[in-house]
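hey so i finally got around to running the thing on that chain from the lab meeting. sorry it took forever, my laptop kept dying and i had to restart like 3 times. anyway pasting the input first so we r on the same page abt which one it is
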Amino acid sequence: MKLMIVIVQEQDYAKLATLLIRNRIHATRFETSGLYSNKKNETLFICVEDERQEQILDYIRESCTERKESCQVWEYNGNMMVQVEKTLKIGGATIFISEVKDIMKF
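ok and heres what got predicted. didnt touch it at all, straight out
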């Protein structure tokens, strides 16, 4: 059994959630934000059987796309922190996968 922690951008979440719900994949959702870009994200905890892992990765690839966007970020200029405009590559997904020893529900 695997625990997948999936971080996607807010605008990609709806399409991914639809695919997960249609295919009866349960997830727990948290609203999060990135420290650097300060963009809103959705973080999903998904616990699945090993054989379904690749299926879920396909859903993530299908629904989460990378794009470029200009945004204000904080950077250190040598003296102090200043806000600068940068073009960042955002979107896509960040996925952490780990083994699950036990699952308990009470």
